Amino acid sequence: MLPHVLSNGICSLNAGEERLALSCIMTISPSGEMLDHEIAETVICVDKRMSYNGVAKILESEEEALHENEEVVPMILQMKELSDILRERRGRRGSIDFDFPETKVILDEEGKPVEIKPHERNAATKIIEDFMLMANETVAEEYFWRDVPFLYRTHDTPDEEKIRQLSAFINNFGYHIHVRNEVRPKEIQKLLGKVDGTPEEALISRLALRSMKQARYSTENTGHFGLAAKYYTHFTSPIRRYPDLQIHRIIKDNLRGRLGEARIAHYAEILPETAAQCSMKERTAEEAEREVVKLKKAEYMRERIGEEYDGVISGVTRWGLYVELANTVEGLVHVADMRDDHYEFVEQDYELVGVHTGRTYKLGQSVRVRVTDADKVQRTVNFEIV
């Protein structure tokens, strides 16, 4: 969001350099309860700047990493311990974790994709995620009770009809959601736990996600369904997210005694439009990112037409099979290209069944495919069964 000279310069926490910061300093009990906190303007001087991979190697007890970073190893191990406690505590209250593999596209100097692979979350990324979630909840709760204009990150309860549709669908696989007057996060969390590691995991997880409402920015604190949190905001990334920057302005006005009637009236006037615009721009950015990744996948596979890959059936429809490769590329095997038989779609089982041979293709089944086409304009990839 900010110019490179700022984001990688004076706004970046470089080792050995003092930086102005807005900090949420928390005291947390061994059970994960937040006992005390202070939100303050601070000066930070980083002793050692580390990468996610570097921290992950320490947590995996790699000897070289332990030796090179011995002075910070005790702290990192304690961070991991606290992270596990916070994650387990969120899990008990019903927080939902949709752990879909993201795609990492490696480009050459000319922007041509040279490698596509899953971007895995490791133990180090989870530590930062857990700490940021705790800070975001803490800041949101404090400013809710201060009763001043503020930007919250909200996620409303899903529509009852969408949950009923999801419930009817998963019944085909033997799963059930207990819906009272309204669904609770714990029910979705339990469902994801039950399908974990099953052939239908990817499909049901995606459908569960689609049954959720989209998270948005709001001046009203209505809670966050997915995190099972009463209070939530985005505070931790002011360099790359405008809502966080806006929140920092409000907090600094409060800390410096500038949040008088005139300033409160100013924020009350501008924040509804800020929330709406930030929510809209977020959707636009997400759609652009998805389309670019699909384009680069098609461009990458265009160079590999005729090559064969092992994959897993990720979707079954009337018009064919969707197969996902280990590198996250997904392509369609059109039913018209399955020439060894005439295949019919069995909706209740989500299978394609050969009328003459009885051969079946179902969710989660391993198959070997050949790349037959890849269209950059349509952003599609086509396979055939080998």
Task: Please tell me about this protein's structure.
The chain has 386 residues and is of the alpha+beta class. The protein folds into 3 domains: 4-155 and 215-298, no CATH class; 160-211, no CATH class; 305-385, OB fold (Dihydrolipoamide Acetyltransferase, E2P), CATH 2.40.50.140. It contains 10 helices and 14 strands. It has helices spanning 4-10, 52-59, 63-68, 73-93, 123-145, 160-170, 185-195, 201-211, 242-255, 261-302; strands at residues 18-28, 34-45, 102-107, 113-119, 152-154, 216-218, 308-317, 320-325, 330-334, 343-346, 351-354, 360-362, 366-375, 380-385. The strands form 5 sheets. Strands 9-8-7-13-14 form a 5-stranded antiparallel sheet. Strands 10-11-12 form a 3-stranded antiparallel sheet, with no helix packed on it. Helix 4 crosses helix 5 (123-145) and helix 6 runs antiparallel to helix 8 (201-211).
